Amino acid sequence: MKIVDGHCDVLAKMFLDPSIEFQYSQQLQANLNRLLAGDVKVQLFAIYVPEKIHPELKFNAALQMVDIFYEKIVKPHPQVKVIQSSEDLQGLQENEIGAVLTLEGCDAIYNDEVKLKTLLRLGVKSVGLTWNYGNFVADGVLEENAGGLSRFGKKVIDILNERNILCDVSHIAEKGFWDVMDIAKRPFASHSNCLHYCSHPRNLTDDQIRALIKKDGLIGLTFVREFLNEPHKASINDVLKHIDHICSLGGENHIGLGSDFDGTEPPLRGLEHAGEYQYLIDALLQHFPHDVVEKITYYNFKNVLCSR
Fold it and tell me: Which band of pLDDT confidence, cut at 50, 70 and 90, is reported for residue 308?
């Protein structure tokens, strides 16, 4: 059963440790061999610039991750194909994996729309507005007294709308979320779960989930343990509970997967890397019809990607 995974942090790991190689490295939860073993058909690769990088160097760090994407992930591995269009996605062959470049947080662009446009020209197809804290676009979920979109943030949304780019609301504070819902054409959450089952500021309220469904968006369920349950209790069964809750809100056609592999430690028991995706599929098939599982793992996210 094919999978689209909406979020991983392979690029950040390879940026921080240049000795890591993509195909075999056991340091990567989503290395090439594990993606192939897990039947991941499309992987979204996030440009996440770590907080410790000096602000003046963040755009350069983002460019270095773009270079890693093309030179160390795509170029040496003929079976990895860059996805720039729905035609690219539809044209993937049986033994090929699609790779989509995304931006996690607009810290790297500072307050410069040219930097954003540059990253879009280099192939970024989804833009997350914040990480957990504030930037010139908006506030993140961990900011106290968080505000909404700034004037510059609204300009960023205009640029994304003009270019039909996905606008990722994972990590943004709630006030900013509602600002995005008002003006973004293609909002989605690449890696977020349900506040109903786990009270974590990164999770979405029922009203937020309904709003994404109404806008024909998607919620990529993530395997980060503290977003699923109390970390020591979290299991694959909690992933199923979050999925079931979104279905109960009318979201059967709006659920995907956004693992956050390589972005969190320790991993979820029983789903510790991309090669173990079959364990999740087996659990899903015990609780949902086959066609619904195919939507969750592949078709819902594929439809979002193909709508550009």
Answer: low
Q: Do the Cβ atoms of 130 and 152 come closer than 8 Å?
A: no
Q: Give percent of the chain with pLDDT exceeding 70.
A: 100
Residue type, 151: R
Nearest-angstrom CA–CA distance, 261 and 283: 19
The mean of the pLDDT values for the chain is 97
| Residue pointed to by tokens 């979201």 | 251
Alpha carbon distance 114, 97 (integer Å): 31
- Give the torsion sign (CA, 261, 265, 269, 275): positive
**Residue 113 structure tokens:** 């729309």
Long-range contacts of 114-118 (CB under 8 A, 24+ apart): 115/59, 116/156, 116/159, 117/159
What is the average per-residue pLDDT within 21-36? 98
Cβ distance 259 to 10 under 8 Å? no
- Are 223 and 239 contacting, i.e. CB atoms less than 8 angstroms apart? yes
Alpha-carbon distance of 261 to 251, in angstroms, equals: 24
66 CB-side CA count, 13 A: 17
Q: Taking the alpha carbons of 182, 304, 61, 161 in that order, is the dihedral positive or negative?
A: negative
Helix (H, G, I), strand (E, B) or coil at 157: helix
pLDDT one-digit tens code per residue, 162-202:
999 999 999 999 999 999 999 999 999 999 999 999 999 99
Residue found by looking up tokens 């000096």 in the block? 54
CB 13 within 8 A of CB 65: no
Of 85, 89, 167, 162, nearest to 129 by C-alpha is: 167
Element (H or E) spanning 32, and its range? Answer: helix 32-37
Q: What does the block give as tokens for 158?
A: 């205009």
